[in-house]
TrEMBL record:
It comes from the Bacteria. Keywords: Dioxygenase, Iron, Metal-binding, Oxidoreductase, Vitamin C. This is Fe2OG dioxygenase domain-containing protein. It comes from Paraburkholderia domus. GO terms for molecular function: iron ion binding; L-ascorbic acid binding; procollagen-proline 4-dioxygenase activity. Residues 176-285 form the Fe2OG dioxygenase domain. SMART domains: P4Hc. Its cofactor is L-ascorbate.
Length: 289
């Protein structure tokens, strides 16, 4: 009968951090020969430890002070004001949150641009992946049930114009951005709570950070209206944003001192009716090549 040694605990901790459900991890352990009660107790203990560690690191939510020694919120690059001129388009600011740093926008893209990205992407969709924490590979996992299509940065004039607009809105160099990713979520599809940055403690992160360094911020663009569900949520901050066609949400998770914000934990809630199309723009601290 197998025992819970250091190797098993390391495996379990990495999968907890990646967002696997307790039931999935218990099933995996039982399938590997562990007794059901031992598997359940070990998984529960790992989730309890992860929750305690996160609680110890998390700064105060929107509107509250940050305790000494925790993540420090320096000024975000996004311009002030209720309307921002983003390259070729005026973008409305709907909401700002200081902790974590979140900005919700309207009118980032036109209806025609949203339709163009959806129709371009529909025939290219493949099951979405996440970064393996051990070796940096891109794996299909149970907690991300979307389909996606990737585009090289500035691949044609249409994409180049969008890239310049998004870079202007985020006030971050075009060359520091990853290529655009379009995602489709059907009914029941979701992306459970996760971080967009690469955890420095994980071996696999080095593979990705070699190309432009750490991720510093994300822009999620909503390409259609969703009949029900599909919100972008920040569970530790108590913030949730419903998808609205042409709108977007920006969030920043690395400050000038290269600290990483634990309050940036976020996810995509299950789609309850219809489908959800989004486009994601990640930006790095350096030039992404």
């Amino acid at each position: 009968m197998p025992v819970v040694n250091d190797a098993v605990q390391t495996w379990l901790n990495s999968h907890v951090e990646r967002g696997f459900s307790p039931a999935a991890l218990v099933d995996a352990m039982v399938g590997a020969g562990f007794e059901s009660e031992l598997a359940q107790a070990t998984v529960n203990a790992s989730f309890d430890a992860a929750d305690a560690a996160r609680a110890a690191l998390v700064a105060a939510p929107c509107g509250f002070e940050v305790a000494a020694g925790e993540y420090r919120y320096d000024p975000a690059p996004v311009a002030a004001g209720n309307v921002i001129r983003a390259y070729d388009r005026d973008v409305k600011v709907l909401m700002r949150c200081e902790r974590p740093q979140i900005v919700a926008f309207a009118d980032v893209m036109s209806d025609e641009e949203c339709d163009e990205m959806i129709e371009r992407s529909r025939p290219l969709l493949k099951r979405s992946t996440t970064v393996n924490p051990e070796n940096g590979s891109n794996d299909v996992i149970a907690n991300r049930t979307s389909e996606g299509a990737w585009y090289h940065r500035g691949a044609d004039p249409f994409l180049d114009r969008l890239e310049k607009r998004f870079a202007s809105l985020m006030n971050w160099p075009v060359d520091n951005g990853e290529g655009l990713q379009v995602l489709r979520y059907g009914v029941g599809a979701e992306y459970r709570a996760h971080f967009d940055y690469f955890p420095p403690s994980q071996t696999g992160s080095g593979v990705h950070m070699a190309r432009g360094g750490q991720r510093v911020a994300t822009l999620v663009l909503y390409l259609n209206d969703v009949a029900a569900g599909g919100e972008t949520f920040f569970p530790d901050a108590g913030v949730s944003v419903a998808p609205k066609r042409g709108g977007a949400i920006y969030f920043r998770y690395m400050n000038g001192a290269r600290q990483l914000d634990p309050l940036s934990l976020h996810g995509g809630a299950p789609v309850l009716e219809g489908e959800k199309w989004i486009m994601t723009k990640w930006v790095r601290e350096g030039v992404f090549a």
